[in-house]
Every structure is written in C-alpha cells, then in structure tokens.
Fold:
Amino acid sequence: MVKKVGIEVSVAIGEAVRLANADVVAAYPITPQTHIVEHLAELVADGDLDAAYIPVESEHSAMSACLGSAAAGARTFTATAGQGLELMHEVLYVASSMRLPVVMAVANRALSSPLSVWGDHSDVMAVRDTGWIQIFTENGQEVVDNVLCAFKIAEDRKVLLPVMIHLDGFHLSHVIEPIVFPEQEAVDKFLPINNFPFALHPAKPVTMGDFAPPIIYPEAKWAQEVNLRASKEVILRTWQEFGQAFGRHYSPVESYKTEGARVLLLTMGSFSETAMTVIDKLQGEGRKVGLVRLRLWRPFPFEELRQAVKGAETLIVVDRALSFGGPGGPVCSEVRSALYGQDKKPKVVSFVAGLGGRDITPAGFETIINRGIAIAQKGSANEFEIFGVRGADAEL
Amino acid sequence: MTKPEGEYTWKDLEVGAIVTEPGNAAQYKTGDWRSQKPTYDFAKCIKCGLCQIYCPEGCVVQNDEGCFEADMFYCKGCGICARECPTRVITMVEEEE
Structure:
C-alpha cells in the first residue's frame, strides 16, 4: 500500500533518503536544513537506515567527506543551506569535476550580512557555476520525488555528476504537508544499486583530482561541460521513468495555464504555488496571463524555455536573489540571454523580490504583473525593478 | 601515458580526468622549472646523504662512486642541497639552457 502521511517536509526528505537506501550521510546542521539531518541521524541511530552518519565539524568537511565516500562507491547524501553552502563552495567544484554522484538537498537561505536564516535564492545563485545538476522544487512531494530521481540521475553511467535539490527554506522545509511515499519495493525497482565505475580500491589504484598543467586543463573542463549538458537527456528519461512508475510527472520548464496567454510570469521554487493562485484569479477576470516555472536550473533548459514563452508578448521574471551591481536577477539575466538571438521573443521584465524570507503575497504578484506590463509598454531606464522594498517602490 | 599530453583530445580523457595508470607522475619533467643548477666537487663528498634527505623533490641518487647527485630530469634547482651539505660539495650556478 502506498502511504500518504502528513509530515514535515524536512523529515520527509530524511524518509526519501531512507527509501533510497543511502550508504553515507555526512552533514553539518544549519538552519533551515537542520531537521533534515536530525531526522537522518535519528534513522541511522535507531537502525532504520543502514548507513554511516559522519558528524563533521563544518560544511567544508561535510562535502569533503562526501567526496571520499562517493569515490569509494557509496551512495552519498548531504544537506545544507545559506552560509553552509558558501562554506562548501570550493569543494562543490571538486565534486562535479571529479564526477562524484553526491546528492544534496539545499534548504535555500539568504546570505549574511545582515544575518538572515530565512529563505531566498542567494545561496543557489552563488553556486550556479559549480557544475552540479540543480533542480528547483515547489512542494514537499516534489522534494521527495526528486531526491529519489536525483540518485538515479547522479549515478547514471552517462552522468556521474552531483545533484542539488533546491527547496525554499522555511516556506517549504518547515511546513507539514500530505506526502505520498512510494513502497520500498517500487523504489528499489526504480533506483538500482549504485555501481560507481571508478570506486577506489587498493587492487585498482587511480588518482582523482590530480594536477593538470595548461596542456591538459582546458580539455578536462570541456569534457565536464559536454557531460553536464548531455545529462539533460538522462534527467528527462529519469523523470519519464518516474512518471511511469509513480504517476507524477516532471519537466525542465513547467507551464501553468499558458495557452493563449500574452503575458507570462516566470518563477522558481515554492512561490510558484502562490503565483498559480494569482493566475487563476486573473484568468477568472478574463486576463490573458499565464505562469512558467523553471524547474531545471542546471543544465539550463534553453530549448524548453524558448518553447514555453514563444507565444507571449511580455515575460516577467521574478528572481529571489540580487546580482549586485549587475543585471539584478540572475535567472532573468539567463532568460534574456537565452532569448536574445530569437527573432520573435517577448519583452523581458526583471523583478527582484522576496529577499531574506519576505513574503510575496498573491496581491504582491498581482502588482508585479501589472507593473511588469506597464514597464513592457513604456520601457524602463532600470536593468531591473526591486519589489516590496519600502522607499524603493515609489519610483515605479 | 601512452602518448604525449598534448595529443590528448577531451574525448580521450578518463571520466573526471582521473589517472588510471599509477605512478605516471614520474614522466613529468620538473627539471625545466630550473633557473639554477647544482654543480659538484665530489673530492669533498663524505657520502653522508644529507642532501638526499633534505631534497624536497626526492631526486638525489647515489652515483657509481657512492656520491650523491641530483637527477636533472627532476631537479628544480632550489639549492637546499647546497645549503645543507656540511662539506660544501655543491655550488649552485646559473642554468644556461
């Protein structure tokens, strides 16, 4: 019997990792990720998950321990957030460059200072270029499903890359939701045992992360780039297989009521669900407004995005991070770049909102849409608009 | 390596650029980093081996006479051997190559 239970999303992630039968968890607790690793520690201590739990002294060590365990061929999981992700930063590159299939849940959090434990996408955007596959989720069910998919994607012989599953800190990590857990047998069938082809063994020594002078380094980096781009095929196949097995379907760019819409809103993460209710309301009033949600952040789904927005006149992108002194919203910057060479493309308007856990309410999204339409018509001297900041809104 | 590094395309590299052939660092010529090289007055050599112990490259070996001498394929010319030699056998001179 498939179980549907009311459970905190963080705890549900621990349960998903148990279902995936992870061999090693190395993690350092940090708000708002703490409940994920607390539950995993409990599962291991109680004997409910036959894994090694490595309590480390920092996130830098957490990721370093993950490298070692993944290199030994163990199915490896960790989780972090905000400052913790930043402390891991240099090791994240090593994980992807050495092609180690680590899976990590990131409870997205703002960055200091001022100190904030609340959610936004500043931490995600700072690790954008670390070579990891990155997937945004919107609700607890999506997190559980995608943690299972992440192991299958990461460990695929054609991929062998680490995967980050992004979930909004607090807004998602700390809410109690009804979640369907698949049966162990079905998970085992979907997710074969990890068979890392280069597992460290004394009888077959290899050197990982070795020294590369200029004569070989660019070839190594290009191989990595080709591989990350090619991983999309496996990601798509894995979501398809997951859909067939469990009846829930995922795609790199997801459209909500976009048919005939002249104005599209683009969001990532849990705020997309708020945005959906706004789209429902506006369509009820006869307005041609739809929603596009970016699920796959890396590798960036260029073709799917172009398809999703091709009929629209205006595209309003809402980022939850600031690229200081730059284009404003990092996601919008990439969306603009993806559309720039297209003959027919919507006018793209960039908003930054919801920093440091600030809510974007349904009324807020409605204002963003209305302002976005006005900016698309009249133009703006600004690269982007900030929304919901006292004293800054008045200029709009 | 079966061919010079410069002939490897990105497709030839192992996954993650890992090295599957143990010990191939021995093929890496560190001797061409040198700006100075050691010269020897072996008449003063007491064969104590201190230069071998101190050499950070591990490239000092005993020659047929039992005296200690750097392998110039690896010697980076750091001069530590010359500084540590108790009988001043070794003098560092400009590399002329």
In short: Helices of chain B lie at 50-54, 80-84.
